[in-house]
UniProtKB/TrEMBL annotation:
Species name: Salinihabitans flavidus
SMART domains, sorted: AAA
Residue intervals of the ABC transporter domain: 1-228
Keywords: ATP-binding, Nucleotide-binding, Transport
Top-level taxonomic group: Bacteria
Protein name: Putative hydroxymethylpyrimidine transport system ATP-binding protein
Annotated Pfam families: ABC_tran
Entry keyword annotation includes Cell inner membrane: no
SUPFAM superfamilies: P-loop containing nucleoside triphosphate hydrolases
Family membership: Belongs to the ABC transporter superfamily.
GO molecular function ontology, one term from the record: ATP binding
Amino acid sequence: MTAPGLSLRGDLWLGEQALIRDLALDLPAGRWSCLLGPSGVGKSTLGRLVAGLPGPHRLDGGLRASDGAPLAGRVAMMAQDGQLLPWAGAERNVTIGARLRGQRPDRARARALLADVGLNGMARRRPGSLSGGERQRVALARTLIEECPVVVLDEPFSALDAATRLAMQDLAARLLQGRTVILITHDPLEAVRLADRAWILGTGGAEALELPGTAPPRSHAQAATLEMQASLLSRLQGMQPA
Ligand SMILES: Nc1ncnc2c1ncn2[C@@H]1O[C@H](COP(=O)(O)OP(=O)(O)OP(=O)(O)O)[C@@H](O)[C@H]1O
């Protein structure tokens, strides 16, 4: 599996509403690109566009993969709300992609991933009997089991406590090594820990961020990480509507 880079150009529209003008994003192949920005700016819309999900969104300058091949079938997305099937247990939720494609589900891999995300012994539990953070980890396992070269993670760790969040960030960084990952997050520390590249999206386009010179995943305790987190938080605070 070779992961392509992605190029996004032009204005992002949702129906008749222009969300972001003049996007010019080059997401490097096999790396983590992080998108931040105020609520409602269009980050999830952009994620859904990359994932090829249906909807009234469009990017009028185009979305291209660096290898020139279509993206269809090469993107896995973990949506903000997880979108688990309420009637299926955790393991069946994790293997739903294979089932829908008519393939034999890899149950052993699903159980191993559930154990990796800290849900050992919960394979049969339905979403309704899981906490919000546990549901989010089932959705993460479902994304990780797909062998897609491009992965969109839309606020994947938002429901987790701080320690579990750090552990899941490290797990995702390890298991998604070599994939082209788009991480949408509101958490400046998460962005600084995981990103190879990062941008703040606004209605006028994307502003690239300077990141520490070390390779991700970066320690949450390093001075450079904490300094960058603080400065990013101040910038995001300045972008909120009064
Ligand atoms: N199905 C929809 N129909 C109409 N408008 C929508 C729909 N989904 C989103 N929007 C609007 O599109 C805009 C962008 O939404 P989007 O979810 O992409 O923002 P976001 O940056 O991901 O926000 P957040 O950080 O709060 O998740 C918002 O103004 C939102 O109200």
